Target: Queuine tRNA-ribosyltransferase
Amino acid sequence: MTFTLEATSGNARAATIETAHSTIQTPVFMPVGTVGSVKSLDMQDMAELLGAKIILANTYHMYLRPGDDSVAKLGGLHKFTTYPNSFLTDSGGFQAFSLSDISKADANGIEFRSHIDGSKHYFTPEKVLDIQYNLGSDIMMILDDLVALPATRERIALSIDRTTQWAKQSIDYHRRKQQEGIGVNQNIFAIIQGGIDKEFRAKSATELCALDYDGFAIGGLSVGESNADMYDTVAHTLQYMPTDKPRYLMGVGTPEDLIENIDRGVDMFDCVMPTRNARNATLFTSFGKINIKAARYKYDEAPVDDACDCYTCRRYSRAYLNHLYRAKELTYFRLASIHNLHYYLNLMRQAREAILEGRWSDFKAEFYRKREG
Model:
């Protein structure tokens, strides 16, 4: 992987990431394809209709079903799914922690029960990487020790110590595997933890960024804290992260969250929000959100957003989408998801253009002005 920082405007950054499968221009939003599929869309939609250069799949889910060995036998994620561009795979630690009826972290890893059949499993830093080698993703996230908030300072401190230890194990293991010819074209990112405590965030970032990782992520945010706390924590953490490697904020979020964190210097984002909200009748537009199931749209012949040139807005009216949603027609999910993902991906393209042209602050002000209008 190569990372080239092309321009800054304030703290906002425009860069290019090149992997074995695609050239990714940042800021970038990664659609979430948890089980190797973005809900209601196929890979032609993703690669050709939406032009997504990278999507996220999840190690936990692919490990449990269909199994990483099965994916490897079928040629890895790219051949299995037919998606030609880059995959980032999350480590699965969050899912093991949050979806299991019984999950427990210890010094060596995380024990959990499958949410599918209740079977017991154990993730170690090395096992999580072995799964991702089988998946063949372009960017692999390492195992970190997650903490449910609120938590005691003692538990957060333990989390950071474990996360750093697991990061050391992971990078050593990955470099050894590459020397054996395994994972040669795969890249590895570490995940900074620490809640909203600035001292802990600085400690975690300093320890992890001293290691030979290809990029770094900020994890453990957008889990119930206030927006102000999230933004402050991101800004504080970024001070300790290198400028010559990708900066990834995990699981965030609303269009406003993306704009605010680009403003602070983040390069990469992912979130289920655009597709999940689409399925629940909430559509994103240049002027804010609309609830397409509302009665006011029954006879509305306008597109979802006059400023949008997505496939859905070019062909269909609000009235038609209102009808499809109310009729529980499956076509609705595809058309709404296409629109919301196009909105997110296009917002990133517009943000990048503004940064390259040195007019980021004006772009951000205009983003909010449209919403206020």
DSSP finds 15 helices and 16 strands in the chain. The radius of gyration is 20 Å. The first strand starts at residue 2 and ends at 9.
